[in-house]
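Re: that chain you flagged

S.,

Sorry for the slow reply, it's been a week of failed gels. I finally had a moment to sit down with the sequence you sent. For the record, here it is as I used it:
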Amino acid sequence: MNPFEAGLTLTVIELFGDIAAKKQNLAVCLSSYLALGYSLFIFLKDKPLSLVNANWDGISNIATLVIGIQMGEQLTQKQMIGSVMISIGLFLIN
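Prediction finished late last night. Pasting the C-alpha cells below so you have them in one place:
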C-alpha cells in the first residue's frame, strides 16, 4: 500500500468515527478511533509520516467538507475555497 492508499484508508476509518460522533453513537465512534489508531501504527511502520499524513489530511479535509454539507452544515464561499486550497497544497506535497 502506498502513502496515498494509506491516507485514503485512514480517511474512511476516520469518517466512520466522525459521523458516529456527530450522531452521538459512542460505541461506533470509539471503535472507529481505536481502529484508526491501530491502522496508523501499522502504516507508519514502513511508510513516511509526512506523506501518509499529508494524504490523510488532504483527503479527509475534502471528504468531511462534503459529508458536513450533506448533513446540513453550511460554510461560506470563502471557507469552502480555503478548504479546497488547503487540500490542493497537501496533495502537492505528495
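What I noticed first: The helical segments are 3-22, 26-43, 49-70, 77-93.

Talk soon,
D.
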